[in-house]
Each structure stands twice: as structure tokens, then as C-alpha cells.
Amino acid sequence: MLTFVLFSLAGFSALVAALLPRIVHSLPISLPMAFLAGGVALGFVPGLPTVDPVEHATATQHVTEIVVIISLMGAGLALDRPIGRKAWTSTWRLIAVAMPLTIALVALGAHLLAGLPLVAALLLGAVLAPTDPVLASDVQVGEPSDAEGAEDEVRFALTSEAGLNDGAAFPVVHLAVALAAAGAAAGWSEVGHWALEDVLLRGVVGVVGGLVIGKVLGALFFRSPLPSLRLADQAEGFTALAVTFLAYGLTELAHGYGFVAVFIAACTIRSAERAHGAHKVAHSFVEQIERMLTSWLLLLLGAALSDGLLEALTWQGALVGVLLIVVIRPLVGWVSLLGTPGGHRERLIIGIFGVRGIGSLFYLSYALAEEGTFPADPLWAVVGFTVALSVVLHGLTATPLVRRLDAARFRAAPSDGAEDVARTHL
What we know:
Layout lengths: L1 H22 L7 H12 L14 H22 L10 H24 L5 H10 L25 H16 L1 H13 L5 H36 L15 H15 L4 H15 L5 H32 L5 H22 L7 H9 L5 H13 L5 H37 L5 H5 L4
């Protein structure tokens, strides 16, 4: 009986995920907010199994892992702007400046305010560093288009940042795990090994793996001499899943960062034939899968909140999450973007909408599976609270703030052409 109830819930939630965006598109209510609230309500229904990410650690890790890599493929396919030093200035600043500052400030707050041990505080900073704009659709790039200049700076910066920083935060997670495993004996040898293996080796393999897989599959899909192998001509959306799983699996087998490889592979395939209609089909397919899986995952997160995930949360731990969402990310995001092409209002919006989400859930479950000495319950309480707070605050504010910015940009543009509007900075 319980199995059939779960199937019914899964089907009903998938139906709601398809219908709800049409119903609330003009309201400051996001799909993630609705499913998180629905999950909280389900948690109080008697007879349903308890949702505990600590007890079901392996399932939590792999489910969140799948959602993250699918979202990375969607982000890479959606971006119209070719990768470049100047064109991606905002992205490089957010990765190289904003993310390390966020990790350091969250770790400092977690240690001084919440009393977490230094290594656990470092892990918390790394776990909460990645952004996840999929949980606030108004601040991510839409479907692929033929024009390279049609993306405004806000949506481009947040989407490209999310595509890269899921992989860029991984080395710090590995550092925290290595230091925790070494315990009191931790020293420079562990740091040196980490820098060589987890930063340099894994990072290079991740980038190279993504480039090679993207170029090989892009050539196969678009320019194969055998028509039967030019899969882009058939515009089959599920080929995007093939690229996702191949890039992730092969790169991880080669001891590289699969998250980096998936995003790089998606961007590389996008650049292989930028104006081809197959990109829209693939992106639409990936987006639908991502929306369905994210909805289910948020239902589970909401149920976990009701089932006791927050029992270990102290007001000091909650304060760390509030400071991250309200103060730390907006401040370091804005500072890191000084001197970039965007205007001051755009820099502020980019800083504000550093959404926390599925990536944080994966990183924490991964780290706890690798090293069992971390205080699991307090860490899950802070992370669960922070993700829920981000879903609610960003879900309420994304639609009105971004629409106001779009309207102001449209009024200030020299013409109503898409490229002129996108290139107008405020």
C-alpha cells in the first residue's frame, strides 16, 4: 500500500510541476517554494516513511548528484556567449573572488558564532559556497538563441557562475575531508597532497575531459560524414543525457572533477554549431527532467524539515545561514564585480541572488560519507535551514526585482532590439 501511495505522490507532484508555472507566473511565488512547502506538509502526514538524510546518506548523495549534473548540462546548453577572458569577466570574478571570500567568511562565522570545530566550519563554508539559480528561474538564462549578445549580464553571470562553481568548490570539500581524516596529525604534507591531487590534477582532468568529450561528441552530432551518426539532425533531446552521463562518468573514472567536465562539455557542444535547433530541443528536454527531479527532491527536503532535520539547529547556526543569504553573499558578490561590464544595480542583483540549493545538499552528503567524524546533525541542520531560507527569500523577491530591472533596462536601451536591451547596463 505504501508503495502505491509513493507512486501517486510522485505522479501528482510531476503534474503539479508542469501546471504550477502557468498558474503562478505573475506572482512572487516560485515552483521550489511550493514544493518545499508541500514537503513540509507531507512530513506531518502519519504513515509515511521518515525522511532522514543522515540515515539514508547513500541515497541522498546519489539523488542529489544526478540532479546537479543534469542542471549543469542545462546551464551549459543555455549559454549563448562563447567562453572567453573578457566575455566571461563577471564569471571569473565570482569564481575567483566571491566564492573563496564566501567560504572564508561562512567558516569564520560558523566557528566563532556556532562553535563548530575549524575543520567542520571549513566544510560548511565549502558546502554553502555554490550557487544554484535553478531554484530561482527568473535569474537564469532562458533557452538557447541564435544571437550571442542577447543575454543580459545578470542572468548570464548567475547561470555561468552556477555552472562552474559546483566544481570549483569541490577542492575545498576535499581539503576539509583530508584534514578531518588526519585529525591532530594534520600538517603541510596533507595540504601539499591536496594541492597537487585535488586542486591541480583533478581540475586539469576535469577541464580536459570536458573539452575532449564535448569536441568529439559535437563533431559526431553535427559533422559526421555518415548521416546516420549525425544525431543533431534528428534533434533527440535525450542525447543531452548521454553527454551528461558520459562526461561525468568517464571524467570521474579518470580521477577528474565530473561536475566541471559536464559543464565544459555542454559549452563545447553548444559552440560546435551554435545556431543549430537541436540545442533548443536538448535544453528543453534537460530542463523538464531537471524540473521534475528538483521538485521531488524539494518535497523530500521539506518532509525532512518536518521530520526533525532542524532539531540540532541552534540560533547561532541559524544566524550563520541568515548572514550568508542577507549579508555575506550580497556583499562579496558586489565587491567581486567592481570594474566588470555590469552597472551597480546589476552587480547588486547578482550579489543578492546567490541562491543556495541542491549542490549544497550533495556536497554535505558526500563529505559525511567520506569522513565520519564530522558533526552530521548540526551541519545538516544549518544547511537545511539555509537552503530553505534561500528558497523562500529568493523565491519571493526574484520575480519583482528582476522584472523591475528588465523594465528599467528596456527604457534605457537605445532601441527595443534584444541585443541593445541586453547590452544596456544599469
